[in-house]
Specification:
- The chain is mainly alpha-helical.
- The chain contains 14 helices and four strands.
- A hairpin with a 4-residue loop joins strand 3 and strand 4.
- This is Vitamin K-dependent gamma-carboxylase.
Amino acid sequence: MREKDISENQIGNLIKVIAFFWLLTKVWSYKTWITERVYPVIPPLDILKNVPDFLHQFLFGFSLLALLTVLCFKNNLWLLIALFFSEVLSCSLDTVRWQPWEYMYLCFLLMVIINFYKPKNILLLSHLFLVSIYFFSGLHKFSRDFLSAVWLNMVLVDFFGLSMNFILKYKLFFTGLLIPFVEIALAILLFISKSKKKISYLLILMHLGILIFIGPLGLKYNSVVWPWNLAMIFILIIIYSKPVDPVNKNILIPNLYWIVLWFVMPVFSLFGSWYQYFSFNLYSGKGDQMYICISGNEKELEPYFEHKKNTLCKGKPYINLQNWALKEIKSAPLPEIEIYRKIGVHMKQKYSKDHLKIILYNHQTQKSIEL
């Protein structure tokens, strides 16, 4: 088989894997994509607030049909273009739809569209994109927030069931820094190593570990990313099934915009000037949590009330926005202050502002701000 045919087969398999897991994820998180829900629909621009509900539903339906068609039939450039623009339009109607997996799939889709007749370009760019994902995902975890919220509470206490006495006795707290160190090291090795396939096996093991940790056999947490981790395993297998061509200026210069998007812009996220999810800030424990304290009789919010005591709300019923989103729409809210503020404004407009108090709380610094 010719080398070009092999590359085309890889791209065909890549597109079908992405279409399958994208379809699965969108069906599982269907309430993220429609307006028939309690969780607020927050468009990035105010002029999009009055878009009719049927447009959300239509775009969701079109997306499912397009993904199913891509999955079942030969790749068609015009169908991929239509799918891309329908997804971007749908995401422009509600900020919560800009999930990290959605952003990743859109990048892959656009790569394929632009380089539809250049399969080698797609494979090389996909390789660089994976390096970026793992590098910045690891970099964001180099913080005390990750050690406290994720490593200590979720991994050591909730998953392994260790006591604080045991953790302190054996000084396990700072051993959590091995996780971001390994993730960054694997990203660098994936870029420079000649044995990329062997490095991909280690990354596959990492995704299997994540699935054990948050999956149905573990914490049963954030179920919408389970298919994403499976997708990453298959993407790694496909991209590194054959040797990846070396990176050279003939590839980099015409594709400089991808390099800026994947390797330059995420740096700004470290200073709050670029979206965290566009930089693959995942499970880092960073940022504020939004709490909604409720003093009125808001029946439709009751299913999302927390049962743990919370001093912020002084004994009143309250909702943790993250838990509400994961429970109802199966997607996490974007961890951006401007979006939290828009949600706060929406909630006070929809319900009596005298019955609600919106608080942003940082568990690491223990500082709170009322919106």
